[in-house]
Amino acid sequence: MSTPAPAESFGARLRLDLACGLSLLTRLPVGWLLSPAQRASTALWPMGRSIWCWPLIGAAIGAVVGAVFWLLRLGHVAALPAAGLALAFQCVLTGGLHEDGLADMADGCGGATRERRLEIMRDSRIGSYGVMALGLSLLVRASAVAALPAEVAVLALAVSACLARAVLLVLPACLPPARPDGLARSLNPLPRGPLWVGLALAGVSIVALAGEMTVLISLSAVAIALAACGLVGMAARRLLGGYTGDVLGAAAVFTECLVLAGFTALF
Length: 267
Known about the structure:
Largest sheet: none
Oligomer: single chain
Number of domains: 2
Helix content: over 70%
């Protein structure tokens, strides 16, 4: 039996939201963010309430991965190996959460019915479609980062990661859950206050990162992210009847791929 959540100050609520977002999107330790009362409580963490910070966490992840790439380039590591190592660091930092969702959704697309697709996506084993999706996504991202100047790549990785996590807010707002449990259920109904705050912070983050970009490039990145979100959303609605955690992961990776590829056309 769980104990009720303790009464929280505004600062404690913010720290709990950050801990919730970081524990989902990264493998970083988060206990230090919690108050003693929060650490002692067995109440469920407020996953839906924490969505406001997801784009900010994404931007930080992208910036750190970009810094790894930049440092490797400073060490005269060739562009493509440096990009591959930076993406490997990202997978370690995030636990490959979104990549796992991409592989599961790709495998699920091979099912003949909605029920069978959802069943395949629950299977922890990876199939040929999942392997192809992972390989192609890593190829697109690594080659795109390698094609950019190091300082631009840092910016592109931060922007693409921020937009990829913003997409995680948009899809649950537009689609119903495909399952009655899991991440989909924890985000439904999506709290509107944190949703709008999260989208506003994503916009502010893009503007802040746009110091080295023109307005056209900023708007192009947002448009590409919306297109990626729309494509994955349409596929999820048609094939699954809604979104799952795997759909959100697939949308995040697909967004990163398209935004990074778009940067190569703009620079």
